[in-house]
Fold this protein.
Amino acid sequence: MIKANGEAQFMALYEALASDIRWKIMRFLAGAEKNVKEIAAELELSPSIVTMHIRKLETAGLVGSRRVRQNGGTHKMCFLKENTIEIELPSASRPAKVIEQAISVGHYTAFEVYPTCGLGTREKEIGVWDDPRYFLDPERVHAAILWFGKGYVEYKIPNFMHVGQTAEAVEISMELASEAPGLRDHWPSDIRFVLNGVSLGTWTSPADFGRAARGKYTPKWWHRNVNQYGLLKTIRIEAAGTFMDGERMSEVSLADIQLDEPFWTLRFAVDEQALNIGGLTLYGAGFGNHDQDIMIRVYLSGD
């Protein structure tokens, strides 16, 4: 996530966003990395114009690039580096109080998974792939990546709000993708999110990413032909409803969730009755393109 607070060093970010063409480039790169010629063909622009726009996006930290050998030549492959931007406007009010927790992907308390499935720490694989029994291996608490073809994993989260405190919003942030045998650029999966037994909504992951590049933080020893990285998604539950990356996901509001319980439950599921049963990969710190575990943030109202 890029955080911009209005200071001079973020002017490049504001300039990069002030262009319809650059928004179209980012939208095109959201699915998979592309070279300059592919972007130019998609937008019906000259490669030189596209190069200028890519340079501005790179300066702002929104787009990254790498050079690869393909078909006997060297190509500049561009990819979207960020999925979320947080802009903090000047304010004389007190900063909101936030309770933040990081939950390791291996600290689930319940599960039901079906192959293809597996787990790995930053240093090694856990047990044998496609055998759900290893989801109970004691090593699983150290897992930094897990995946399954269908089913769910569920986490229990301590509620650290004190008596009298009120939540203004709850955010859940995680890196995730589909799970295909190997890697697939097109492998949709309907992933459902459940908090305290209430279904927040479903997001369709477009792919099991990694054919074009390794994950930025994925360990070098990790296999090249399997899960490499996902997309960073943020769910925010407010009084007005539930949103993913700023877009309405459902009508579920804070009033629908029992936030006064001492423990909350968070479930990630790919249901058997889903339209797209494309599995789920969860990335924690040390894997993927975002060096983070599952993040839970509770924004408190008032003093």
Summary: The first helix runs from residue 11 to 17. The helical segments are 11-17, 20-29, 36-43, 47-59.
